[in-house]
Amino acid sequence: MKNSHITTFFLATTLLIPNGMVNVAAQEPTTEPTAEQTNTTETAQTTQQANTVDTTQQATVTYGTPTWTWANDYSYAYATQTSSNGSQKTTKFTATSQVIKPVLCIQDGTTRYTVKLSNGNGGYYVDQKTVTISKNTATHHFGNPV
Q: Which residues lie within the region annotated Disordered (predicted)?
């Protein structure tokens, strides 16, 4: 004989009277749930499923736009980023330099320093510093006159 499981439900009626609620004696037991009981059970199961968190998925942490802190000689910069969970990370980047205008005895020079950090989507966060270099700091090399 196959095992079977029968759930018995007792139905009760509640009457609302001006002085409060009174339960009337339970009726005969029945093995079939009412439509209301079925809907309540389904709603409870749906709510339970909606509140269940899948712990096998790893949380994705994203980092925002960096704040750059440059070295005094502009040879490197630190990028500090805040993540979506509130933590911070700081990374050091070596700068590249490009002479825009050379320093001469009679003119100031200009150099642009650049650092860049991948944004994870195929682009970069870029920071640049353009620095004027005084002609007074130029090193003069004198040779023999021609």
A: 28-53
